[in-house]
Amino acid sequence: MTVRELGDIVLPGSRRLAVCEVGDPTGEVAFYFHGTGSSRLETALYADAAAAHGVRLVGWDRPGAGRSPAQPGRTLLDVVADTRAVADHLGVDGVRVAGLSGGGSHVLALAAAGGPLVRGVVAINPGPPAEDEILAALPGQISRFMRLARDRPSVFATVSQVVQYRGTGKVAEILESMRMRGQHPSDVEVLHRPEVYDAFRAAAVEGGRQPHAYTNEALIIWNQPWGVSLDEFPMPVDVFTGDGDLFRPFAEGLSRAGATVHVFPGGHVSGFVPEVMNQVVALLRS
Fold first, then answer.
1. Residue 22 is part of which domain span?
2. Strand partners, 238
């Protein structure tokens, strides 16, 4: 099932967000936040689950990704205003939200600061803030990468370009091969499933439409304070984490703030399987 494009929503200051939807067009509205370096088209992976659960799942390109123009000086908390603008455009006064990876970081910010509009949050392998106590609990492989973004952003900007998918061509395929070698084996298997590969690749190509899309958002998440407290959530929060995901210690630690933690087999994107996606959408519908 392909996404249904909803065009651009115009925000104050003439900013625009490119929006799409999947699932039941008359169903309960929920929002999906794509991973860093991806785009609104990632929502397509949830199309069958959304249709089965009667959910109208709406996603958009965050500023700087896909077709949404960049927003100079953007901070993580700007997601609150964006979410309210999309909800107002759709005539929604209460919504549950889900997000993967960097999208998971954004929905955690909404869990802390998005009420009363946001009524529940599902975060899948959320990226953490680059705070010392969090970095100390993470594997060195990812904590060094995050620390580089926090402390040496110009060096991080150079190193991180290998992470952004660039589409087709020999150089792109070499870089993609390098990136895939760093994935959990389950991630590689899931991403190469026919029902996942085309949609995920299309989302990644669209997400790389603007130069440095991955790097710029990673720096928003890791190079500056989030401006919210993750000590106690004022709304229901469910966190899904792969048992082999590098962010797992952070995800499981969110239970101390009241989050319900669900562990599934695999790594960072191994949740793109029907079993996990149906659980996520069921929580958005509940």
1. 4-285
2. 122, 260
